[in-house]
Amino acid sequence: MKIYIAGKVSNNSSFGTHDWRDGFCGELAKLSGLNLESLDPIKVETPNMLAEDVFAKDCYLISQSDVVVVYLSDDISVGGSQEILIGKYFNKPVIGLAPRGGKFNGSSRKVGGQIKENYRDPFVFSTCDAVCDDVADVAQKLIKLNNGELKTKALNLIADAAKGFEKELKK
């Protein structure tokens, strides 16, 4: 299974290294028992290192993957959220790893003047096909995907959400 792992690239990431995907993919393979091939954007050279080239490379790698896994660390950059939608554009299953208690999953957050307990980020939970608390749960979702048991959302989820909200406004 070809896997594109999105997430913070910098040495300043929560993993402390730019090449954290190797260990992460290895752990997923061990926990799932699946043969995983990492399509690591850091390991594929970008010819001119222009922003457009980096974007094109990541789009290509996502298009070649069987699944996109997004590590939603509290310090994730904007690229990770874009890679979720690029995955949906290419009809790829997207699994989010959003640690419990982090800013995307299960934290307390002030929304509309009220404190929301067990906050679930609406953009993450609406666009990802599964959101997991830990690596073991991601491995289980990969097994389900491999067995054809993981239901995936298509890009039309965006238009459907807009239409659904429009209907609510007209009530």
Biggest sheet, open or closed, and with what strands and sense? 5 strands, parallel
In terms of quaternary structure, the protein is: single chain
CATH C-level = Alpha Beta
Largest sheet: spatial strand order: 2-1-3-4-7
- How many discrete domains? 1
User: What radius of gyration results from the CA coordinates?
Assistant: 17 Å
**Helix-strand sequence:** EHEHEHEEEHEHH
Which percent range describes the beta-strand content? 15-25%
Uncertain regions: pLDDT < 50 for 5+ in a row? none
The CATH architecture assignment turns out to be: 3-Layer(aba) Sandwich
Shape: globular
CATH fold node name? Rossmann fold
Category by helix and strand content = alpha/beta
Mean of pLDDT: 89
* Percent helix range: 40-55%
**Counted beta strands:** 7
Q: What's the tally of helices?
A: 6
Protein described:
By secondary structure, the chain is α/β, with parallel strands linked by helices. It has one domain (2-169): Rossmann fold. 40% of the residues lie in helices and 19% in strands. The chain has helices at residues 21-32, 51-64, 78-89, 122-127, 135-146, 157-169, and strands at residues 2-6, 37-38, 67-71, 94-97, 105-111, 114-120, 130-132. The protein has a five-stranded parallel beta sheet with strand order 2-1-3-4-7, sandwiched between helices. Strand 1, helix 1 (21-32) and strand 2 form a beta-alpha-beta unit. Helix 1 (21-32) packs across helix 5 (135-146). The protein is globular and about 50 Å long. The chain starts with a strand and ends with a helix. The mean pLDDT is 89.
